[in-house]
What does this fold into?
Amino acid sequence: MSLADTQPFVADDGSFAFAHNGRLAGAPTFRLRYPGKLDGQADSEVGFRLCETFLGVGMKPAAALQEVHRQMGGQANLGFLAAEGAALLYAGNPENDGWRFELEGAEVASTALHSADEAIFSLCFPNASHRVRLAAGEVGSLGLRPAPRPSASGVTVNG
It folds into this structure.
């Protein structure tokens, strides 16, 4: 592990930051597309460069996150923070759900604790409200509260 492998990865012009948790399976293959542009060994940095490529050709950030995961594969949740403050969370790991919620007046996005239940809230954020579990493949945007719908299990699901 080195500083070069530390997240988030920030665009050279400061326009956005990118992070992920999980595994981007295609990282070794995609790494070959970026000679001289990768400083470390993390699959996150490869995903960051691919996201940067998509943004560079005019793709919107939410679509870029989805496309990074579609092309690289694996099980990964992706985070994006624009310089002007827009934050996105892409839910791409079915074993580690993405969540949006409010906590003490702040809107928060987080992944679960690799647990199918809601332990993230009982253990870390017991006072969270407006809890919304992101559907697989969904991009949650902070600042835009969707109308939640209850699932068959009673857990609120977005989408």
